Amino acid sequence: MSPVHLGAGAVLAGLVIASFVALELHMPPDAQRLVVKNDFVDAKCTMEFTNGAVETFSLAKGAEHRKTYKAVQPGFITMRCRTASRTIEAPGSFHLMSHALAEITLKEDGTAEFRIIRDRPEPAG
Fold it and tell me: pTM, whole model, 2 decimals?
């Protein structure tokens, strides 16, 4: 291959890679964010969404699980975290919101706390 072909191939590969990076980093306007903090003990958590999807993840004591949902996940979410000694359930009000961070904390007393942190204030009306 000639240097021209190699150069053209490198430029094309760079454009393809840059396109994938841009798509991955782009946040749609209705993105929903989640963080689960663990102040209790090691746990294995399962989240069940109203659309039937199920997600599982392990969470060590002192660690966090973070995820951004680019597609809206409507409705309330059932979340259970199993530890060696008990099962902790997220409050029944647990849900994700667009333009906000949903935060679940597994507290030291073995309970779960939920709160929403908005990116911007609610529109008036």
Answer: 0.74
d(CA 79, CA 48): 6
SS3 state of residue 25:
helix
Nearest Cα to Cα of residue 115 among 104, 107, 99, 124 = 104
pLDDT of residue 123: 55
pLDDT tens, residue by residue, 61-100: 999 999 999 888 989 999 999 999 999 999 999 999 998 9
Q: Among candidates 64, 102, 55, 101, which has minimal Cα distance to 91?
A: 102
Joined tokens for residue 115: 């709160």
Question: In the structure encoding, which two tokens stand for residue 124, read together?
Answer: 């008036």
Taking domain 29-118, whether its CATH number is 2.60.40.2890 is answered by yes
Q: Which of 106, 86, 125 is nearest to 37 (CA)?
A: 106
Residues in the chain: 125
- Supply 68's token pair: 């951004």
What was the pLDDT predicted at 24? 47
Report d(CA 34, CA 75) in Å as an integer. 14
